[in-house]
Amino acid sequence: MRETAVTGLVGVGFGFALSRIGFTSWDEVHRMFTFADLRMLLAFATAVAVLAVSWRVVSATTGATWPPRRIHQGTLAGGALFGAGWALSGACPSIALVQLGEGQLGAGWTLVGIVAGNWLYSVVHERWLRWSTGSCLDE
Amino acid sequence: MEHWPWWAGGLGLAAVALGHWLLARRMLSVSGRITAIVDRLRHGPPEEPDMSREEMLAALREMTAEEYGQDAVEAAPEPPAAKTPARSRASIGGHFVFLGGLAVGGVVSAALAGALEPVAGLRSDVFESLFGGGLVGPLVLVAGGVLVGFGTRMATGCTSGHGLCGASRLQPGSLVATCAFFGTGVVVSLLLGVLA
């Protein structure tokens, strides 16, 4: 119960932050990708830099390790398809949900597409591709 | 809505990713949660094992005794402690709670900004001028969503798992995926900018 409540609260915090940074705005995402406004790119780079230090501190103090994220046959192509979809819809997977919460009801279409696309890939992978992604977690 | 300056945004995103691991003991992974839900919808709940762990160990001991004798059973080391089942398979309730939390975060943000009035499409000037009106807008959103869902599952990660958490650990798969999605994001956006 406590774990579920904490998970929900982190979700709320993530949604709020994404909204306030501007990731839920199609126009802001467009300005980020066309380099018309570097603010969100800088925010992202800052987060990565802060996290890089944080993981080292966490690992050194708790001994925690995390599963490797290897390159596999789907890494490049999958990332490329995702980027095209992000530029078109203005949404990565979390964003569609935050947009819906903000009252941007068009994001419902995006969400339908995301679930359908995830489902479609699982079928395509099982029938034709079947490569290993190098992780039992496959996240 | 007033947007946060870049440094506040960076600290906010880092706090969420770090807090997610410290509190929930798993790396932030939004597409991974969607994958877990889709898999449950496709395949149903995981099957119960045919026998309990104790029954399984007893059967293994019996077979070991038959094959190698009772001495081998007694000389064998203690079996490792029982593992808890993988959380992603055990329950999908937490995934719905997290994804629901994202939407609630959007509600809170919009409410505090006094911008809760819903719109049928997106709050975007460029998107509406490019695709707005009629069926084109929804079709582009569904098509874009399919690319996002298909691509993130194919790359086994999205902006959170690869972009934030994997890239900051300098994981090769995450660095390649992040460069790929930023790369095509830039190309497609520049093309849309020419059309706009």
Outline:
The complex is a heterodimer of chains A (139) and B (196). Chain A has 139 residues and is an all-alpha fold. Helix content of chain A is 71%, strand content 0%.
Secondary structure layout plus pairing:
The complex is a heterodimer of chains A (139) and B (196).
Chain A: H1 2-21, H2 26-33, H3 39-62, H4 75-89, H5 93-101, H6 107-129
Helix pairs in contact in A: 1-5, 5-6
Chain B: H1 6-24, H2 30-43, H3 53-68, H4 70-75, H5 87-90, H6 93-112, H7 125-131, H8 136-154, H9 159-166, H10 172-195
Helix pairs in contact in B: 9-10
Essential attributes:
heterodimer, A: 139 residues, mainly alpha
How many separate helices of chain B?
A: 10
Q: Give the assembly state of these chains.
A: heterodimer
Rg of chain B (CA only): 24 Å
Give the rounded overall mean pLDDT of chain A.
93
**Gyration radius from CA atoms of chain A, angstroms:** 17 Å
Helical percent range of chain B? 55-70%
Pair of chains with the largest interface and how many residues each contributes? A-B, 108 and 120 residues
Q: List the helices and strands of chain A in order.
A: HHHHHH
Question: Structural class from helices and strands of chain A?
Answer: mainly alpha
Measured by DSSP, the beta-strand proportion of chain B falls in under 5%
Describe the structure.
The complex is a heterodimer of chains A (139) and B (196). In chain A, helix 1 packs across helix 5 and helix 5 runs antiparallel to helix 6. Chain A has six helices and no strands. The two termini of chain A are 24 Å apart. With 139 residues, chain A is mostly helical. Chain B is elongated. Chain B has 196 residues and is mainly α. The longest helix of chain B has 24 residues. Chain B is built from ten helices and no strands. Chains A and B meet through helix 1, helix 2, helix 3, helix 4 and helix 5 of A and helix 1, helix 2, helix 6, helix 7 and helix 8 of B.
